[in-house]
Amino acid sequence: MVSLVLIGHSSALLHALRAMIAQAAPAVPVATAGGTAAGNLGTSSPAFLDALRAGLAASGGDGVVVLFDLGSAAMALEMAVEELSPADRALVAVSDGPLVEGAVRASVEAAGGAARLQVLAAADAERRTAKLPPDWLASLDA
Amino acid sequence: MDELLVRWLRLAAARVGEAREHLTDLDAAIGDGDHGINLDRGFRELVHRLDTGACPADPPSRVLEAAGRTLISTVGGASGALYGRALGRAGAALAVADGVLVATGDDPRPSREARASLAFAAAVDAVAALGRATPGEKTMLDALVPARAAFAVALASGATFADAAARAADAAEDGARATIPLLATKGRASYLGERSIGHLDPGATSSALLLRALADSVADV
Q1: Chain B residues with CB-CB distance to A75 below 8 A
Q2: Which domain holds residue B65?
Q3: Which of A40, A44, A79 sits opposite B34 (nearest CB)?
């Protein structure tokens, strides 16, 4: 099964997100890496690398979809991905989707047995999915 | 150059320690308020590894690569990735130069100036590539790019190594000051939009500080 790898600046944020995913898709393996080695808010490419390897190991060859929080995490992620073997790197897909919505949506997709690129597409699609109905504000005014 | 490199890293660590609060205050104004704290933690660890030998004292390529790895694993955040990658790529550039020398059997070794230029250029390229940034976006590059140019121009005009390093530091400080009126379009400061205008960029400031430390390390000889 495709694994999710959630990375970012805060360990607490990602652990809470993992708990939300466990409700929606308990069978999907989720690896997280947030915060610095010293336990502060921030990113750590060595920690990201560990999470990528854990996710890959749990995926049984199906690969991982990575979601991250703020833009600067992409820099540390880039450095972590470069440390992987070419074979492992080919099994890593990175989503540009929003962390919370994308991760929950992707987990449901993965739980259904979707392939890595389908899971990636589901996470990415959350970028373009409106959360509010178009008439939401208007209905408040009414 | 080996001794100079280690002397620079140690002096840089001391200067980062002195500027820790200043850098953090600058970052609190337009970022996430941890630049000085993060850099200080990383440079302290680097000094510790130099003291214990966990970070080698030579050759320069390996010193830089080990220093880069140290910053990447201990600074945390964007600055650790950027400075760590910069030092690592500078080291890799020197290692390539060493390999070319072995292959061609060239002797004598290229001058300290030539090796420093090569390493400097690789470091600045690494920051630009990883950050996907160019000068004018209120980042480290606003200090680093003019400094690299000043260094190369000075050496090409026959300046001494010490002079070139001093001119690079001058250019970096000018470049950092020139970030004040800039609108940030990269990094956390870009979230502030217009409100980023009027603030000194913490990354450009720390870059200038590191280059002033380099100039002072050379001048001390």
Answers
A1: 78, 81-82, 130-131
A2: 2-219
A3: A40
Which residue, A14, A16, A24, A112, is CA-closest to A55?
A14
For chain A, the domains span: 3-141
Considering only CA atoms, which of A116, A64, A130, A120 is closest in space to residue A97? A120
Q: Is the pTM of this model over 0.80?
A: yes
- Please tell me if residue A42 touches chain B, with a CB cutoff of 8 Å: yes
For B81, the closest of A38, A41, A79 (CB atoms) is: A79
What count of other Cβ atoms lies within 10 Å of the Cβ of residue B30? Answer: 23
Rounded CA-CA distance B210/B169 in Å is 8
Domain count, chain B: 1
Rounded-to-integer distance, Cα B126 and Cα B120, Å: 10
> Which residue matches tokens 């899971």?
A119
- Predicted confidence pLDDT, tens digits, chain A (142 residues): 999 999 999 999 999 999 999 999 999 999 999 998 888 888 999 999 999 999 999 999 999 999 999 988 999 999 999 999 999 999 999 999 999 999 999 999 999 999 999 999 999 999 999 888 888 877 776 6
Count of residues in chain B: 221
CATH of the domain at B67: 1.25.40.340
3-state secondary structure B193-219: HHHHCCCCCHHHHHHHHHHHHHHHHHH
> Encoding tokens for residue A22?
């466990």
- What was the ipTM of the complex prediction? 0.82
CATH superfamily for domain A3-141: Phosphotransferase system, mannose-type IIA component (3.40.50.510)
Phi, psi dihedral angles at B105 (to 5 degrees)? 70, 20
